[in-house]
Amino acid sequence: MTDDAVSSFLKSVTLGIELNEAWILCSATAYIWNYNNHVLDQNRHREIVDTLQTLLDGLRKVGHAG
Question: How far apart are CA 47 and CA 27, in angstroms?
Fold first, then answer.
């Protein structure tokens, strides 16, 4: 599930990785989590697994996730 807003924030994740700026990834992650909260509440997690995996991978690359 990606729309224009989510796609734009995923682009910021790429930029954050290139700049090694964890705060950019944290901001994008919070935005995408909140933006998709209704999906999570409706137990439709599978629709956003790829997006969340991208975020987690990015956070790991900048050393901000275990």
Answer: 21
Tell me the pTM: 0.84
pLDDT in tens, 11-61: 999 999 999 999 999 999 999 999 999 999 999 999 999 999 999 999 999
DSSP 6-55: HHHHHHHHHHHHHHT-HHHHHHHHHHHHHHTHHHHHTT-GGGGHHHHHHH
Kindly state the DSSP code that residue 3 receives in the 8-state scheme.
-
* CA 46/CA 27 separation, integer angstroms: 22
Question: Domain map of the chain by residue range?
Answer: 4-61
